[in-house]
Amino acid sequence: MKNITLSADETVIERARSEAARRGKSLNQLIRDHLEELAGHREPSNEFERLRELSKLSRGHRGAWRFNRDEIHGRS
Hints:
58% of the residues lie in helices and 0% in strands. It has helices at 10-22, 27-39, 44-57, 69-72. The longest helix is centred in the middle third of the chain and has 14 residues, at 44-57.
């Protein structure tokens, strides 16, 4: 495994480190995962975990809204 040096704003690094800890990972592991994803070497089994991580970050909430059969099929 090869080492790289990364420069970033101190505030960004601290916020990223906090987010990594919230996900139960080190900042190093989080960056490694992202590099693997960029390079297209991410295992398919990891995709579900990535989706789960992204859903936790989502600020969207559907509240009490539910699909309505008539709306789905364009009926009024």
